[in-house]
């Protein structure tokens, strides 16, 4: 499968610019607030990138973590970091048989077919302290244009 044209060429730079901004703290807090207690559970991290959240799931007690991403370059970086940290996370490269570029509607259809009855898309949760720590308007564009951080599902 041809590497994703958006992330393949920048994979080696992604960590340095994505983790350098304040939004990453908000996204981490949002994801783990939604995930709740993951100790002893298995986690599938879709669109895992270079494995930031995968490693955080493992560090927070997940018994098994599998990361999947469409970018072969991101998976290579994630595997390298996993070896470096010795965290035994399995990272799976894209395959035409396992990876699909679905739209949101297709994700929702797949989730419904899997038996989940309730789901909602979650935007990052900003705290008042996040907003107060920066000049007026700092978060405005981010809040208007941020991607949904997580899909919250219930059976």
TrEMBL record:
Instruction: State any single GO MF term.
Output: methyltransferase activity
The protein's matches in InterPro entries, at most eight in alphabetical order, are given as:
Methyltransf_25, SAM-dependent_MTases_sf
GO BP annotation list: methylation
Which superkingdom heads the taxonomic lineage of this protein's source? Bacteria
State if Transferase is listed as a keyword. Answer: yes
Q: Which UniProt keywords apply?
A: Methyltransferase, Transferase
Instruction: Show where the Methyltransferase domain sits.
Output: 43-94
| Signal peptide (from-to) | none
A Pfam family this protein belongs to? Methyltransf_25
Q: Which PANTHER family match?
A: TRANS-ACONITATE 2-METHYLTRANSFERASE, TRANS-ACONITATE 2-METHYLTRANSFERASE-RELATED
- Can you say what this protein is called? Methyltransferase domain-containing protein
